[in-house]
Amino acid sequence: MKNIAVIGAGITGVTTCYALSKRGYKVTVFDKNRYAAMQTSFANGGQLSASNAEVWTQMSTIMKGLKWMFRKDAPLLVNPRPQWHKYSWMTEFLAQIPNYEKNTVESARLAIAAREHLFSWAQEENIEFDLETRGILHIYQNQQDYDHATKVNRLLSMGGLERHAVSADEMQAIEPSLRGDLYGGYFTPSDSTGDIHKYTRGLEKACTRQGAHFIYDATVQKLHTDGSQVRIDFAQANSGDTQTETFDGVVICAGIESRSLSAQVGDRVNIYPVKGYSITVELPDAVSQQSAPWVSLLDDNAKIVTSRLGLRRFRIAGTAEFNGENYDIREDRIRPMVNWCRKHFPDVDTEHVVPWAGLRPMMPNMMPRVGIGKLPGIYYNTGHGHLGWTLSAATAEIVGDIVSQTMPAELDNSLGTLSEPLRRAS
Length: 426
Ligand SMILES: Cc1cc2nc3c(=O)[nH]c(=O)nc-3n(C[C@H](O)[C@H](O)[C@H](O)COP(=O)(O)OP(=O)(O)OC[C@H]3O[C@@H](n4cnc5c(N)ncnc54)[C@H](O)[C@@H]3O)c2cc1C
What we know:
There is one protein chain. This protein has 12 helices and 20 strands. Strands 4, 5, 6, 7, 14, 15, 16, 17 and 18 form a 9-stranded mixed beta sheet that branches. Helix 1 (11-22) runs parallel beside helix 7 (196-209), helix 4 (100-125) crosses helix 5 and helix 4 packs across helix 11 (388-406). 35% of the residues lie in helices and 25% in strands. The longest helix is centred in the N-terminal third of the chain and has 26 residues, at 100-125. By secondary structure, it is an alpha/beta fold. The protein folds into 2 domains: 3-40 and 198-269 and 367-424, FAD/NAD(P)-binding domain, CATH 3.50.50.60; 49-191 and 272-362, D-Amino Acid Oxidase, subunit A, domain 2 (D-Amino Acid Oxidase, Chain A, domain 2), CATH 3.30.9. Flavin-adenine dinucleotide binds at residues 7-13, 30-33, 38-41, 44-47, 49, 219-220, 253-255, 257, 276-278, 305, 317, 358, 360-361, 382, 384-390.
């Protein structure tokens, strides 16, 4: 039986582990944290949103972003301090503008494909994760934003998504608790929400039942490959000892750290950490519970997404900050989300609000990197940016198939040079 390592126990690493275990591989997952899903897969927006598949590499989005740079409470913030990685990444991001339509269509297609796997795994493995299948409502306050959404709809429907226009009255009927000025909206009944952390922990347990092994508090420091085996050196947090284990292959699912790990094996996976924040509003009483929405919302102007996580929790997430590997929770970034909650849901109690910040592992084309590396035995399933929860069940299946084709679980690894089509899969 082939032995595969997975680096990272976030949503991408755990779904990859599950896909590989199902295909008959012996899988070992390394994570530097004490538990699964403690980094970006901890408290995100919760949306399983094919309707949010639009990539940001578009001139009007970039112009809006530039205007926002001068507003302190704007959803976008760029630290102007010179930093080579940030500016070179942004240059590559701009170079992706011609691929905007293609990548939006492909993201929507992947997001739809992911649903089937994510839901069937949850059912098979009995995972409870506060799933709400009441759809996602995009809300717009002015005609300009609404007209842009109408253009995006054409691309989403090319990707196979059904999303329909709704009037302000219809929006109120879909989510009666919604308040504030509304111009119009788009509703996607097939989208849903759920708690990424609960799901990842549940799937991790399922992987363990299937024989996978998780090594926590273990920071992977060095990857070596001799063409047939991959050696992993890792430091154990408790003892400080460095240990080594050897595998037939490795899948790198290390979120924002995939970039430095990939460089060790001669690949370039140009991930930039794009910071976002969430607040989890605790709903302590019947009034708050009734006044918070159950239908998931996406306010395109404020760049805010919401999800209802059971009776007692309401999650609000958003903002994009280009400020390197920085996890600081800033009060001036959290306050606009609390104010947004008060404006649209005035009867929701905001006394107990739990703030969080996470770093989206973002590629310049905003598409995940899924496929093989330059050297044999190296695979990637990483760089899912703003849509890791939405896409990872599909990309885990894709990388599972690629590993099966290049390194069958029960046969020896005699493939030698990897074929060009698979190389292009990345
Ligand atoms: C505010 C916010 C809101 C979001 N909302 C949504 C949403 O509504 N819908 C959606 O689809 N997506 C959303 N996302 C994006 C989504 O959360 C991410 O794309 C996803 O969680 C990334 O998962 P990951 O497995 O790639 O990374 P992570 O969850 O960060 O996992 C990477 C893991 O690798 C481990 N690791 C890294 N380096 C090493 C090493 N050297 N050794 C050992 N372990 C290592 C880390 O400890 C970590 O556990 C949001 C993100 C943010 C920040």
